[in-house]
Amino acid sequence: MGRFIGVRLLHALVIxxxxxxxxxxxxxxxxxxxxxxxxxxxxxxxxxxxxxxxRKQYGLxxxxxxxxxxxxxxxxxxxxxxxxxxxxxxxxMFMRRLSPTLELFLGATIWSIGIGIPAGIIGALKRNxxxxxxxxxxxxxxxxxxxxxxxxxxxxxxxxIFPILPxxxxxxxxxxxxxxxxxxxxPTFVLGTHSAGLLARYVRSSLLExxxxxxxxxxxxxxxxxxxxxxxxxxxxxxxPVVTVIGLAxxxxxxxxxxxxxxxxxxxxxxxxxxxxxxxxxxxxxATLIAVTLNVLLVNLLVDILYGYLDPRIRVRR
Length: 318
Hints:
By secondary structure, the chain is mainly alpha-helical. The chain contains 13 helices and no strands. It has helices spanning 2-28, 34-38, 48-57, 64-76, 90-125, 130-144, 147-161, 177-211, 214-221, 226-263, 269-279, 282-310, 312-317. The relative contact order is 0.14. The mean pLDDT is 80.
């Protein structure tokens, strides 16, 4: 198992290194000096001394390899540069906005797993019944509805017509726990809905496939109760393909967080990234892209480890 994890970790490090180089190259491929283009409205571009001073400040006067080495050395030590738009340290901005995004992802994951797995199990056990049809229809709707449309409709329904929840905004948990929970119910539900529908469909199909295997019929013939057959013999192998879906759903939620945080005015990393794109704030964009990549790689590594736990043949083969 240790060798299996080591190989997967090595793969993740290689991908992270390639993405790091790619992120730096993308910034360099922008027409002209990307930093100067972003600061065109705040400095006099006709003033050669001012332009040269900015180039020197951001290391743009150095060869490309020197720039990359200097940026990478500073990045790994926690110096992620300075925001062009606000002049604040990117690392400080990132850490300040990390908490709302983590809370959003935690809530969305709870919705996704809490709805998706039970719905898939019930649908498999009640195959072709009215309950199964209703759950299948619900999951299809959840997968198909765009996040931004669902967010707008829920805001209109639960914040305008029936003013139960706040339409937008964010309150830190330790400042007002109850208001924090109310403000995060809608965005976490919207972000977790698509993943819940996808998860339910995969759980249902995977469990139905496992329930048709010979060893399940053997377990029933031995006199095991239906609950014991499901819990002890069917669920674990049925979760093998579902683990992949959970990893893919996490990556999908990363993309959805950009829209959700903007729509619900949540001051998280997604909204910070969108603002950085519009402002051409390259230090913020670079840090965010690498952080997102690292997050996805860690989730994929966890998925691989769970694969090895659920199916020993995988870790032996690899």
